[in-house]
Amino acid sequence: MNQSYQVKLDTFEGPLDLLLHLINQYEIDIYDIPVAQITEQYMQYIHTMQSLELNVASEYLVMAATLLALKSQMLLPKQEIEEEEEYMEDPREELMHRLIEYRKYKDAAEKLKEKETDANQIFTRPPVVFDQIKSRQPIVKGDTSIYDMLNALGKMFERKNWNKPLETKVKRGEIPIEQKMTEVLDLVKRSKEGIAFDKLFDYPTRAHIVATFIAVLELMKGNEIQCRQEKHLDSLYVFYMED
Questions:
Q1: Which residue, of 69, 75, 130, 205, has the fewest CB within 10 Å?
Q2: Averaged over 47-76, what is the pLDDT?
């Protein structure tokens, strides 16, 4: 009996993280959030995750409901308020405060992580004279997020008309992630100038799409490959991380 190919990811940090990503991506003023626009973009990510049958945490769906409710409120005709009447709170205010608070803690966590990384790079050793040592450009890890990858995946579905994968039910474990990791790594290694993210997805079936997506994440986690994007909304390219 076939079961749907479901994958649970711990890479997603929560709905506020996704919203903050969208705010940064589209250069939105966090103090004046265009609810209709951000709701549309947020729902696109949710639909992409659901089309892959990734286990979307309930907190993402709760936030989706919250955004849709806010969108409805913002569409209602505004009532005229007399000067003597009390100030009417902006429906977006609570969400704005939650995002600002989340951004504050996220920035603090990133600064602590940077300090930890810098501290790990400090070590002492006896003086050494470096003669005839060739300088080598360090490999800079990509800063592409999982949300950038989901966005690229969603666009690929639309471009290749893969919104409804040909095969939606497969046996669990039919495509081992380890096998797919090897295939992806070999493909990336052969592409010296990097390979377009789309090129890694050669079969329009949910099984192959999900397995490839997870394989890419695992390889990035292991620092074997990296995804690069020149700027937001540009095409993604995957590179091999040489030793």
A1: 130
A2: 88
Q: pLDDT tens, 164-210?
A: 554 545 444 468 899 999 999 999 999 988 999 999 998 778 888 88
The owner of tokens 């990296």 is 226
Which tokens sit at 210? 């999900």
Using left for φ > 0, alpha for ψ between -120 and 50, and beta otherwise, residue 138 falls in: beta
The span from the CA of 6 to the CA of 188, in Å, is: 26
Contacts of 7 by beta carbon, 8 Å cutoff, 6+ apart: 52, 53, 54, 55, 210, 214
Q: Rounded CA gap, 32 and 153, in Å?
A: 29
- Tens digit of pLDDT for each residue in 85-123? 565 678 999 999 999 999 999 999 989 988 887 777 665
Supply 176's token pair.
């081992």
Closest CA to 239 of 208, 216, 209: 216
Q: Is 195 helix (H, G, I), strand (E, B) or coil?
A: strand
Which of helix, strand or coil describes residue 3? Answer: strand
Which residue in 173, 204, 135, 154 sits closest to 2, CA to CA?
173
Q: Where are the alpha helices (DSSP H) in the chain?
A: 15-25, 35-51, 58-75, 93-120, 146-159, 177-190, 206-221
d(CA 47, CA 151): 11
How large a percentage of the chain has pLDDT more than 70? 74
